[in-house]
Sequence to fold (194 residues):
Amino acid sequence: MAKKNQRRTKSRIVSAAWKLFYEQGYEDTTIEEIIEVSGTSKGSFYHYFEGKDALLGSLAYMMDEKYEELEPEISEDMDCYEVLLYLNRELMIMIEESINLDLLTELYSTQLTTRGEKPLLDHDRTYYKVIRRVITRGRERGELIRDLSVSEMVRYYSMCERALLYEWCLRKGEYSLPEEAAKKLPLMLKSLRA
Fold:
């Protein structure tokens, strides 16, 4: 129970921070505002984060929350290809509607230069666990090729998603991310179908 409460507290801080970053920008958001909007304490904030910069990497955990929210909605009747496209579409909608483009760009740049944690590559995250379950089920049902391992397919899928996001950042969000992903991801994943 305590672990669940801790996760909830951290999640409230992350959600409040990204909401404020989106509404007023990263530079104009203070730690005090994040604490106030999250309904937590200064001690709780510093228990989970060294400072505001540490929140940049927390976008990965917002993606995890989205996948946790979506997983119960996945029908057993859907083939894994449809599930992967559904998860991607919902994630891209969430990102376009609630993540500031400059912050997303900043996250990607910090992941390239940081020597510490790289949350986008943390395979213990919910994101990777959900994708692994979907791909494993697809393999068991004969919906996916057997030439690659489940781990290789999970890595390929996440690379495709990062490519879509990275290109969108490079292009300064000049097009609809969900629409572009709906056109490109099926082409990227086509080679995985049995």
